[in-house]
Amino acid sequence: MIKKTLYALGAVAVLLGLYGFYSRLFIGERDVNYGSYVTWGLWVAMYLFFAGIATGAFMLATLDYLFNVRLFKGTGRYALWVALVTMPAALITIAFDLGHMERVWKVYLNPNFGAPMAQLVWGYSLFLLTVIVSLILAARWPGGLSMKLTMGIGLFLAIFLSGGVGALLGVNASRPGWHNGMLPAQFPIFSLTSGVAVMMIVIGWFTPESEIRSQRLRVLSIAMIVLILVKAYYLWTDFSLAVYSGVPDAVEGVNLILFGPYAWAFWGLQLLLGMLIPLFVLLVPRISRSAFLVGLIGVCVLIGFAVARSNIIFPALAIPELKGLIDAFHGPHLNFNYAPSLMEWSVTVGVVGLSTLAFLLGTDLLPLLKQSNEVTR
Amino acid sequence: MEQITHEEKPSADPGRRNFLRALMGAAGAAAALQVLDKLEAAPEQVAGSLVRVPQAVADADDQADVLIRMQADLARALKKQPSERRWVMVIDLRKCVGCHACTIACVAENKLPPGVVYRPVLEEEIGTYPNVTRRFVPRPCMQCERPPCVPVCPVNATYTNEEGIVEVNYNQCIGCRACLTACPYGARTSDFGYTYAEGMPNADGLILGRDSAEAYERAASYEYSQPWPRPPGKRQSPMGNARKCHFCQHRLKQGMLPECVTTCIGRATLFGDANDPDSVVAQLIKLPNVMRLKEELGTQPRVYYIV
User: Fold this and answer.
1) Residue B47 contacts by C-beta under 8 Å, 6 or more apart in sequence?
2) pLDDT in tens, A217-272
3) Total structural domains in chain B?
4) Rounded to two decimals, what is the model's pTM?
5) Contacts of B242 in chain A (CB under 8 A)
6) CB-CB under 8 Å, A121 with B116
């Protein structure tokens, strides 16, 4: 039933995404609302979101294939498959964000390795290759040394890439909201949290009922409780550092998140839906025994994370670098008030739909995942 | 009643000042015109370059119009090796009246499409009524000596050339906007491929109808001394690219001052080689009332403001 519903939702999402894909590929970037002042918008936030899930899922896969944690035997393939379907989603959204996406190859032929973005592009390529090799090895020689080696490399890449995304933002000294050195340290934890959330969904909704499933979900739930608390602490450090520093741009950034026009997204989605409700539900064992509910909590955490990623990106860019820039010159895409356009939403929904369908099709068609299903029994 | 008298008094002073300023401006313009006549009359070629320097510029002394002096400075600078020059811009905020002539001239010179601007003039209102004044701050690219926009480019599409100008290689740029994000001055804008003429009604029979305007807009600009047309239906550079002020490098190569300098009605924008001790700008940047924007970041802008 869950699967059928998700198939239907995925298909609807892809249909909704067709408008955005067409508009971006054949018309260009005219219908987007990001621009020269708010330089990165929803697609960059979604890139962070999907990349976080992909690297986080890989981290979870190492429990099975690298660290041989008995409880998670058989779940690694699912985690690898999640990584494989979400990393392209991340890459599609970030490619759509480029003014000249047909020139991506230049990052391979003429890279500036001093730039975090070039490091990330190369890193993602290696990571994607590692995931594919891992899946092949998981199907053929899951216990071999080559598998462990590949997973070790993948784990390093997953941590490096998660931190790298933090560095991509953190190196910008022009943005006081980002430039605090904490982001590269926080992002691997965010990825791990995303990975735990997605595995709560996968194990809760797509593996058969069994004692071992309950145990796995319990462990993941406890991990999630700890990670949410860590996330809450990070939120406090970020906001308090900004506010206590008294740097006007940094304070203004926090004010925008807490009391700005999209404060409801922070309070309602990021904090309440993404953190407080999961914390409450997971802390009560009687409620959290339901596998469906644990999966649903995974979805809530991911929604909260999507908003959290957006709240990292948009407010920091919505503050003019110089006073007076807002009114100095008017034209399209010269705006500090950013709200994603219909076309941006369309692409995002479409990409979510594509990755959902790809995941579902994999679980139904790939012998590797069917076999994994057997193992989990 | 007293209050009214009090309010009227200050308004009378600016009126007299403006009249005198206008008178001096007219005299200055007349003098400049005379010099310009001479310029056209007696061109002379700089040794070792294709740039033609008018005799009047070569003869310019401290008493000449500052534009003429800067033209002479430029001619001297162009005789040097590019790496020996250090282009700087000095903007005298005391003289800027916020006319935006520089902004518009820049748009025209570089054929900038809607949403792309190299040199906006920031306006700031200081104080509260009735003690209010306004300040205008033109903001070109700062051409930082340590530009934050350069190291973040993933494909080496932006770099500092040997003269110190931060350039964008349009054909290399992938349009990721990392440089826009990194710039502390908001000095880069992204070209989303618009034209001013699109969507406008066509006025048949007029010389400057929509079609003519669009044809003008789509004709090549010559940034970085290369043609950059904007053919309809094609999305080619500089569309999709990061764009920025480049001190009108293509004009400099031809011995001409940047467009914003030439068109500044108050001679508030000055330009030249800071390595030449006799140049106007070298003398100005030594003044104590000179500042640079966000100096605390250590970017070392090449644009100075006289305050």
Assistant:
1) B79
2) 999 999 999 999 999 999 999 999 889 988 888 899 899 999 999 899 999 999 99
3) 2
4) 0.87
5) 99
6) no
